[in-house]
Amino acid sequence: MRNAIAKILTALAPIALAATAVAVAPQTASAATAAYRLTYARLPNGTSVPVRWNGCQTAITYKVNLAAVPTAQRATVLSETHAAVRQLAGATGFTFSYKGATTEVPQVGSSAGQSAEIIIAYTTPTKTNFYLAGNVLGVGGLSYYWSARTVNGATTYSVAAQRGWVVIDTPDMLRLTRAGLGTGARRTNLLLHELGHAVGLQHVSDTRQQMYPTLSSTSPQGYAISGDKIGLAKVGRGAGCINTQYLPLKDLS
User: Fold this and answer.
1) What angle do CA 55, 61, 64 make, to 5 degrees?
2) Mapping DSSP to helix (H, G, I), strand (E, B) and coil, where does residue 237 land?
3) pLDDT at 154
4) Which of 250, 68, 70 has its CA nearest to residue 163?
5) How far apart are CA 215 and CA 228, in angstroms?
6) For residues 95 and 251, is the Cβ–Cβ distance under 8 A?
7) E strand or H helix at 108
8) pTM here?
């Protein structure tokens, strides 16, 4: 019997505001008209599988860092954050468990040390080494492990998301987006986009989807039924259990 384990860090492309020029992550030809795109892990045997959280996980834990939000607005922003997470829960079927405040600010490569499975940080560009320059309002992503187990010459693979993060340029968010639910450049839409990355979605070229890489007047209220929600269902609880027995990280629920 032989086991192999690898960890992959996936930092997905940032979201920007439509008012200025933005460099969009390259899209493959097959994705040119796709209404949703998933994150894939390429395994040593040449196959690719979607990266998703374990469908049998009791809950996905999250913490929120509000340090860069003015004190008078923290309750509102936290309420909006919980509302966005509830929308994500409804679209994926996962249970998300809030574990309180944190001072953590995600950095490139720091996810394994997080105190919750997803960290949402309202911060400033100087506090993180994720790219938040220019018109970029936020970055989201996830890290995952894959394991290979060979028994009697037969190799089986397991792949599971283990940590996720959302990093928001808070001064620009407060200056350039509106509060509350609705279409267009809303704080909640910004967060829903980045949370989509944290559970395994990538950018699409359909401007009617929340996972389009630019906030604009065409940004929907919440996740769009025609694409976003289809993708979230494919990486959600309904996709089934993942054997995480041989993966090193444990869930924090």
Assistant:
1) 140
2) helix
3) 81
4) 250
5) 15
6) no
7) none
8) 0.89
